[in-house]
């Protein structure tokens, strides 16, 4: 039987963070160096669309397009779009068929079982980015953090781990799991927005 991973808790958490993001925070910096909050939210809209379609094996423009140099942005109705995308993403990956066979995301062909883990990891990390940028509390469920850790840890010492993640940041072995996951992605768990002025 195909193992599935429940996205519900993490998608609801990200939806809650987005719902509490104020319009005045859209230009705030984020832990992603090039992104303001608006770009981060635009990226979340794009990746939830792509990975929803990857789960459905609905391959086409949304799954064939890799990351570009252009900064993503938000549409006027971004809250509704992201909320709908997150719910559809969770529903799509709830199907055992999503985890079977091959699919595509970001222009890369990969097994459905890996694509699902990548999608959940994206939500965990970018949820942290959004929470940090907007000063909101962030506590993903243990299962989602475990998926991220298992995905990121094997490549932590690989200098050719690709452009998606920076070098792993050292943290104590007894650091909270969220801090270890964040550090494995190349982010500093202690990141806070720079003080203006």
From TrEMBL:
SUPFAM superfamilies: DinB/YfiT-like putative metalloenzymes. It comes from the Bacteria. Signal peptide: none annotated. Residues 8-131 form the Mycothiol-dependent maleylpyruvate isomerase metal-binding domain. It holds the Pfam family MDMPI_N. InterPro entries: CHP03086, DinB/YfiT-like, Maleyloyr_isom, MDMPI_metal-binding. NCBIfam families: maleylpyruvate isomerase family mycothiol-dependent enzyme, TIGR03086 family metal-binding protein. This is TIGR03086 family metal-binding protein. It comes from Streptomyces celluloflavus.
